[in-house]
Structures are given as C-alpha cells and as structure tokens.
Amino acid sequence: MTETPALDFGDDGLVPAVAQDADSGEVLMLAYASREAVERTRETGLAHYYSRSRDELWQKGGSSGHTQAVSEIRVDCDGDALLYLVEQTGGACHTGYRSCFYRTIDGEAVGEQVFDPDDVYE
Amino acid sequence: MTETPALDFGDDGLVPAVAQDADSGEVLMLAYASREAVERTRETGLAHYYSRSRDELWQKGGSSGHTQAVSEIRVDCDGDALLYLVEQTGGACHTGYRSCFYRTIDGEAVGEQVFDPDDVYE
What residue ranges are annotated as transmembrane (chains A, B) (predicted)? Predict the structure, then answer.
C-alpha cells in the first residue's frame, strides 16, 4: 500500500504525537502537532509540535538544545494520532529525565535522569 | 519519590493513553482514558479506555478477545498523558495489524499483520 494516509486534525486542528526513541524503543513524550508542525518536521527532519498552552508552533529543543532528529513518522489506523521515531539529544523531559514518562501512577520514579534542569533552563 | 502524581483530565475529562508492548517496546495504539477507565484498569489489570465516538467506557478486547494485560501505568511530567505497559493478546488494531501505527506518513505499510479482521469482527 502506498496511498498517503489522510490525517484527521479534529476540531482543534491538532493530533497527539508520541515521540519514541528509534533505537531503544523508549516512549519519550506525548505532545500535539498541527498540520504546520508536521510539515515543518518533514521539511527540517527535526521534531516540531504545537504548544496548546503557549498557542504556538514549537521546535523541540529550540531553547534547550535537546532536539529530536526524526527518522520516520507513522500514522495510526484512524489518522488521528502520530508516532515520531526519533534520535533524542539529551533528555526529552524538562525535569531532566530522558522520558517524560519517568514515574509510575503510584509515584515511583523509574526513569533515568540525564541532565540537571538548572543547567539547561534559566 | 513516592508521592502519587496528580492526573489532569482536562476539560473533557480525558487523557490520552499510549499502549506499549511491555516486552518488545512496540507502540501499539493511542486512545483516551477517563478517571473511571484508569480505575477499572487498575482494578482488573486489563486496559480500559473511554471511547469518544461511542461516549462510553470500553474494555480493550471486550468483543474481539484481543485484551491488554497491563503490567504498569506510567504518568508523564505534567500528569496529562498515560503510558500503559501491556501484554497484548492478538493484535491491537482492528485492521488486523499488531500495532495501529502500521503505516508511515507516506502510506507504506511497515507493521506486522497478525490476524484477519474478517475472522474477528462480524
């Protein structure tokens, strides 16, 4: 099959996008992508998202340097979710953990902290 | 850290929940969970979600038999996304693929088809 899947950006113009480490398989983060964010990601090879809180297009690592080089974008069956396969520089999470999913629902920290956020964010 | 993370179910009472194969690391699907869906998942050990289209609580595999045994639930840094680590029976996708993310954004099928949907769904 080579038909380009239709993307369903929904009422708010966004789809959830999951970033997964292309090598280790670790799920790094979940954010949202607009059509423009997807286009910029494809054009540049660097993960772009749309920030719902700041209401703006956003390049991951644009300020921290913790960019994501995207090797492949996958689309789910309904076309309303994306999977970015990435090579993560540094850590994905602003807390310094490699993955934003560093805690269990009971609050146990199970992720790996890879940087000190005080050194990266002012 | 053992403090239970606060969950932010947002305006619609839902958080996106990503299901990942606990062994292979394959990202299987993205759906949405209500507070009740999370509670039922924890009580039963089987993945529950909330269907936005059918507007109801839903046990994955309830009709198909393709259940997800959940070994761990992780929460992201902001408490507004979940990661279910699961043992997937059969395939996660109604199309017969093991993962709903079986296509690239260019439409190339890269996933593994593990069942014939005509045999499972009437």
Answer: none
